[in-house]
Amino acid sequence: MKKVFPSIIVLLVLLLFSCGDKEYEDSHVFFTFHNDKHQDPVLASAMNPMSPGVFCIIRYAYVNGRHSFSFENNQGLKSGSPVWFDGIDQRLESWKHVGKNNGLVVGYGNLDSPAPFYAYDLQCPNCYEQHVLPQRSCELKISSNGLAVCSRCGRRYSLNTGGNIVAGEGGRKLTRYHASTTGPYGVLGVR
Q1: What is the pTM for the complete model shown?
Q2: Sign of the dihedral through C-alpha 148, 128, 23, 32
């Protein structure tokens, strides 16, 4: 019993510290987009490490019986028309994994060198309730200065610094996912 007791204490301490603020969300997001095939310039603007501070909203939509994505960056550029799924997108079933309510925000932060590549959920983490029906969207709006703002609670989050709250009452920072890109006209992966 004397040998087991210290082991239990160590285990409890480890559990206590591992339950703190997580850097990344454990979720169902498993999104891959082949901009090497689609060549969307709005998404490319946010996947360019030479353009830190440019962030892009990715939205999924089902339009006229077809799956599509649309892109809009914080500099005011929007995709001219929906980006229709191709065979790769259909096989990857990307529409099932685009954030909590069909939206993500991606881009390079502009306050660190080298600039980190971020991916966030498009829903306010302090207002969106995934298990409440009917689900109500708490979609964030992004601004040219790298802030995401919730119209419901008024919190402002910094996209450039990992999604922390910079104005409004306290709470959870933005839901952040692991993200990678092979370049502006390459492959985007969000996990």
Answers
A1: 0.82
A2: negative
- pLDDT tens, position by position, 32-66: 999 999 999 999 999 999 999 999 999 988 888 88
Rounded CA-CA distance 140/127 in Å is 10
Q: Residue 84: how many CA atoms within 13 Å on its side-chain side?
A: 6
Report how far residue 107's alpha carbon sits from residue 181's, in angstroms, rounded to the nearest whole number: 10
One-letter amino acid for residue 69 of the chain: F
Radius of gyration for the alpha carbons in the chain, expressed in angstroms and rounded? 19
Amino acid present at 125: P
- Report d(CA 40, CA 69) in Å as an integer: 10
Give me the residue label for tokens 């210290």.
Answer: 6
Note the residue count of the chain.
191
Each residue of 88-106: pLDDT tens digit?
Answer: 877 777 666 677 878 999 9
- Give me the residue label for tokens 């991606």: 106
Could you list the beta-strand ranges (E) of the chain: 31-34, 55-63, 66-73, 83-84, 103-108, 117-121, 140-142, 147-150, 156-158, 165-167, 176-177, 179-181, 187-190
